[in-house]
């Protein structure tokens, strides 16, 4: 079918259309999104994925109503970091940034007005406004739907089956982007690359993270870090919680000299021991902060916990915070941030956010500002490190559309383990990462199961800010916990490569089964997910000794034992507590490093164990660079080619082509392990 | 202080002010609110309750932002049928009509943009729009609030203490009404009378109600009614559920001749046995309904369960439904309605409501229509009975501002017993009534406790539509249940009088302790409430054998035993399962009738037991009229004066002045019982 005159093709398989007169400030404009045109050009073109004339938009009473067709009986994925369902079809979603996603409204830390049809297309509404999106959950009079009698007909449904998306926002228009397939993965990759591609984290950030209790002094933190080394648990990052500030909630951003008399010395000593330091902060500026005076005239009408809500869309406001952070944090060697409380709450955690009707010096209102605050803070703080030619990877409590290039993972105060796994899945549809961090547990068994999932997340963290837990908190499961942390570290080469792909071709490093090229029956699974190129994680939850896993077609192998599982349907996995069910696609090659206390730095020599699974040849490209700087953006990286050939009599042989040294790691020796 | 020029005094202690350019369609305009000017004139004037110049309104980007001061450290009540808290201070409330009030957002079946300051004033925002109201839950920069350090200072609070109400609605203006005190009760009475005063229900509607299972035929319903008589359980009303329609969800409004071959005969036979018939319906019109064709062009853009959403703000649409209901229901003798599903859902009960962006022929949008649908349906159906010179009392799932004159009680699908009692309290702040109906129970004990509260509610109903329960479902507690139902019937003269006061002076018949003239420490109680003039209900919940009750100053007496309890603080009440703690104010007079199978009709002779409590004289005016028609509006009623004098030696003597006969009941004999 011909694409109508008003849909503009902006890249292969990507179209845009302006409905009404959009506001100039949008999520994309806030981030100054820079599409990865070249990478986009490498995905084959696709036809416009639905009847372009069927889409419509109407502006009425200051509201824009958009309408797009859906194919019958297909699931609809996406809409951000959703905790409560994978398939959003049949639901009305209120896509407001909110820290209270405990009821299934669509509100979450990172709602994204971007949905993915199960038939392989996606739609982004580019706005800084709250979008209410009816995903086949409203029905117009002209649509014929069945009306069975509830009294007598069991076919009656609470939600009648609609076949349109209707989306509404309080703006006089919106620009809409459509992403073609043919697969769900293609549509998502196009979206991620159109956002600017995924980010490449520093290698150290893929190790294990530990956040210390909020009142800890420098000495206590250093003692806790030393305890990791003494006990031989790997750890790369120490995160400080509010107590490092002179005042917090709202924040001063200045070191409490009482608890941290020598910040630079503290950071330096930890660095010597192989740790980087991540600082907690939130955006609301204490009257006790040095930056309060200069930021006051550049802030919103309303306070948060009595602190300023600065208007960081203004360059002069950004400058003030950048200078202070540069001086007080980066100069001392701080490697990243945890950006808390930028989502807001009116409910479970009290009521403390500025209201939607707040005003800001830039002319934005509170609705817009709340929707983009997390995005803007990520961009602002990421820029600090970029300016120093350093990468970062941090944590953030709010995000939105186009976040793939932002070096942050989301987290939450919610703590339902199954919801965590579902969020890991859903994040992958929306250019987001979710750190399924561990805080505490009600039993040793739950502790292990949570640590296992955290270890197989984009960012593996124990957040002991209030719990004071350590990996060894439950001595009876210390071995199982150690095993999960060590697995994390062994996977660093593999995970680092997965991020490199995210950065280059838009494939999420952690993603739902629906993003497999052919997920088969696993398409709707929300309790298992893919990690990197070929690993399938099927977590067990407290109380389980076995679980059902849905396998895409083809053979799969147990990661540790190489046991064969036939794909293309359901399999039952029984696993002891210390073993997380991790399956590998047939023919896959998985590179592992030793479980070092912390990840290696540029130039270090590291042994490589390369596993290959099953009787089919395989190819894998292992990514390598200096692990810390932006030199990779200018070509300073290499792909190490790993291949397994199989002789006619079935003997497997591994080959390595290291490529030119680029100041990265020295992988030596390389040991091949053939499983399955 | 002088009231500023823009606040207009509209009655003693009532002021209005227009901010911006309000929409012409509002909750008050929809109901054509007719203030009870004469009764309003009987409440002493009061000063404007806050600095009138402090109030402000601003219209920006299609939104109106209103701002009113609050006195420090006073609770803020109201905002409609709230289930989850009594004091709304410190919370942001999203006042949308919604059947899913399971999270504490402010959404409920009947949100009302009307709040009551604990210092004795109230504010109504008259709109058909959703109001988001920040009740001291946002803080502007110019307000100084403390900023304790969370790390070290236990004074830190999740919600900083604000001192303003900020309310927002998506309209270019709003009219605001302020109600003066000096007491909370005065402010609420002014509001109710300004809405048109409470309604007077037919006397029979104060008896017990039973709703039969949805698939029951006429014969099965009649058998169930007969079973009440056979077992000697009182019952006045039989309610039919969806199965009486030829098609339901959406509705046809026509009798299923399969299950109800002779509707008029069915209603007539039940009437002969002392029952009236109430019909379940909802507003969404089935394609199988006779009225579907004529209503189609008068309906909204979107369907609900595939049914039309008629625009009943249009007289021609009302006429179509009125004529059909008159012909099919009222002509057959039907006495009232249960108006279901007019609130909408996107969450727990599926997603089935028309969206906020729906359009209607009158020009209203879906936001406005959803907010007022319940109000309009109540008014429409109440009018059917008024035209026949008959009163009605029914049930409704959605309501709003100014609902006091509408003869309906709210109900819900939620079923938390403590929330029910809280809702009974909160309804009294907002011109609403809540039928804390009983449906089922997980234990005989819970069954009794629920029946007790239902029996002391504005409308006492067992809703067995899906549960099939009867009062005798748990045989081991049949006596306790019978006792609660009989108490209900015995209280009818007292309750009827309470409603007459509601109608005449705006005092809610069921109300929170804060509406006492001097509630003392009981002001914030949300698990006890006042019933009629002088009864205090302190329900026990399953698992309790005793409870704390907070008593206003003065002496109180156990309703049955006359045992004295000193007021002005907390008391512990221990009660066996069959006894609901019902306390009586000192000096109170409570008239009771015998526990008849159904309430008496005009002209019948009924014995009266008049109880008096304690050693102080008392006066009580018992209301009487024909119990069914509107003749009382033209003077056909009487007040029966009951008085107790106490001689110098402490002997109590009751006096009765019956007043002229008005075709009501004949109370004879009158027996005095002196307790306490």
Q: What topology does this entry show?
A:
Two copies of one chain form a homodimer.
Chain A (H helix, E strand, L loop, with lengths): L7 E4 L2 E7 L6 H5 L5 H5 L14 E5 L2 E7 L6 E5 L10 E5 L15 E7 L3 E6 L4 E5 L3 E2 L23 E6 L3 E7 L4 H12 L12 E4 L6 H14 L5 E4 L22 H10 L3 E7 L9 H4 L6 E2 L11 H14 L7 E5 L25 H22 L6 E3 L11 E3 L6 H11 L16 H12 L4 E4 L14 H13 L1 H14 L4 E2 L17 E3 L3 E3 L8 E6 L3 E4 L5 E3 L2 E6 L7 E4 L3 E4 L12 E9 L4 E8 L11 E10 L5 E6 L8 E10 L1
Parallel strand pairs in A: 13-14, 13-20, 14-15, 15-17, 17-18, 18-19, 30-34
Antiparallel strand pairs in A: 1-2, 2-12, 3-4, 4-11, 5-7, 6-9, 7-8, 8-12, 9-11, 21-22, 22-23, 23-28, 24-27, 25-26, 25-28, 29-30, 31-32, 32-33
Strand order of the largest sheet of chain A: 19-18-17-15-14-13-20
Query: Biggest interface pair, residues each?
Result: A-B, 75 and 74 residues
Shape of chain A: globular
Care to count the β-strands of chain A? 34
Overall number of domains of chain A: 4
Helicity level of chain A: 10-25%
Under the CATH scheme, which class of the largest domain in chain A? Answer: Alpha Beta
Strand content of chain A: 25-35%
**CATH homologous superfamily of the largest domain in chain A - what is it?**
Glycosidases
Number of helices of chain A: 12
Low-confidence stretches of chain A: none
Q: Would you give the CATH topology of the largest domain in chain A?
A: TIM Barrel
**Rg estimate of chain A, integer Å:** 25 Å
Could you give a short account of the major beta sheet of chain A?
7 strands, parallel
What kind of oligomer do you see? homodimer
Mean pLDDT of chain A: 96
Question: What structural category characterises the helix and strand content of chain A?
Answer: alpha+beta
Q: Indicate the CATH architecture of the largest domain in chain A.
A: Alpha-Beta Barrel
Compute the separation of the termini of chain A in Å: 47 Å
């Amino acid at each position: 079918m011909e694409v109508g005159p008003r849909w503009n093709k902006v890249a292969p398989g990507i179209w845009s259309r302006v409905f009404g007169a959009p506001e100039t400030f949008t999520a994309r404009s806030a981030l100054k999104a820079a599409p990865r045109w070249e990478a986009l050009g490498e995905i084959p073109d696709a036809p416009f994925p639905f009847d372009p004339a069927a889409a419509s938009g109407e502006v009425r009473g200051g509201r824009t109503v958009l309408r797009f067709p859906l194919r019958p009986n297909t699931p609809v994925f996406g809409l951000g970091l959703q905790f409560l369902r994978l398939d959003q079809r049949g639901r009305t979603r209120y896509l407001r940034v909110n820290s209270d996603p405990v009821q299934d409204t669509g509100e979450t830390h990172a709602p994204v007005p971007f949905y993915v049809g199960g038939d392989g297309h996606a739609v982004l509404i580019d706005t800084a406004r709250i979008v209410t999106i009816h995903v086949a959950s409203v029905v117009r009079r002209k649509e014929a739907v069945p009306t069975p009698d509830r009294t007598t007909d069991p076919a009656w449904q609470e939600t009648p089956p609609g076949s349109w998306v209707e989306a509404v926002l309080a703006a006089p228009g919106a620009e809409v982007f459509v992403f073609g397939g043919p697969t769900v993965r293609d549509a998502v990759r196009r979206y991620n690359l159109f956002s600017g591609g995924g980010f490449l984290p520093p290698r150290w950030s893929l190790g294990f993270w530990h956040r210390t209790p909020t009142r800890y002094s420098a000495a206590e933190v250093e003692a806790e870090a030393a305890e990791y080394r003494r006990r031989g648990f790997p750890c790369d990052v120490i995160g400080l919680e509010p107590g490092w500030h002179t005042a917090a909630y709202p924040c001063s951003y200045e070191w409490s000299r009482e608890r941290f008399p020598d910040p630079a010395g503290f950071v330096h000593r930890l660095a010597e021991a192989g740790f980087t330091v991540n600082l907690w902060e939130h955006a609301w500026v204490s009257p006790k902060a040095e930056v309060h005076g200069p930021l006051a005239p550049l802030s919103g009408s309303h306070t948060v916990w009595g602190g300023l809500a600065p208007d960081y869309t203004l360059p002069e406001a950004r400058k003030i915070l950048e200078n202070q952070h540069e001086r007080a944090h980066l100069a001392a060697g701080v490697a990243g941030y945890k950006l808390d409380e930028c989502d807001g709450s009116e409910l479970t955690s009290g009521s403390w956010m500025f209201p939607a009707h707040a005003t800001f010096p830039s002319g934005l209102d509170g609705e817009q500002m709340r929707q983009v605050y997390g995005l803007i803070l990520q961009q602002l703080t990421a820029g600090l490190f970029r300016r120093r030619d350093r990468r970062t990877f941090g944590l953030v409590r709010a995000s939105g559309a186009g976040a793939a290039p932002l070096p942050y993972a989301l987290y939450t105060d919610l703590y339902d383990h199954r919801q965590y796994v579902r969020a890991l899945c859903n994040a992958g549809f929306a250019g987001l990462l979710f750190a399924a961090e561990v805080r505490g547990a009600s039993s040793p068994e739950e502790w292990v199961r949570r640590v296992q999932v955290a270890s197989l997340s984009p960012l593996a963290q124990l957040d002991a800010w209030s719990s004071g837990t350590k990996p060894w908190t439950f001595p009876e499961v210390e071995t199982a916990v150690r095993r999960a942390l060590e697995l994390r570290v062994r996977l660093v080469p593999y995970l680092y490569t997965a991020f490199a792909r995210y950065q280059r071709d838009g494939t999420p490093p952690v993603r739902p089964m629906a993003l497999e090229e052919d997920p088969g029956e696993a398409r709707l699974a929300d309790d298992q997910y893919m990690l990197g190129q070929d690993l399938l994680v099927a977590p067990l939850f407290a109380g389980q000794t076995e679980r059902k896993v849905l396998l895409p077609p083809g053979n799969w192998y147990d990661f540790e034992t190489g046991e064969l599982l036939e794909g293309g349907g359901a399999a039952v996995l029984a696993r002891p507590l210390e073993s997380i069910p991790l399956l590998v696609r047939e023919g896959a090659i998985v590179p592992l490093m030793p479980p070092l206390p912390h990840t290696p730095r540029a130039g270090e020599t590291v042994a490589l164990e390369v596993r290959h699974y099953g009787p089919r040849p395989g190819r894998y490209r292992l990514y390598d660079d200096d692990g810390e700087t932006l030199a990779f953006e200018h070509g300073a990286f290499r792909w190490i080619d790993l291949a397994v050939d199989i002789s006619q009599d079935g003997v497997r042989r591994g080959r390595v082509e290291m490529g030119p040294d680029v100041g990265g790691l020295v992988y030596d020796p390389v040991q091949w392990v053939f499983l399955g």
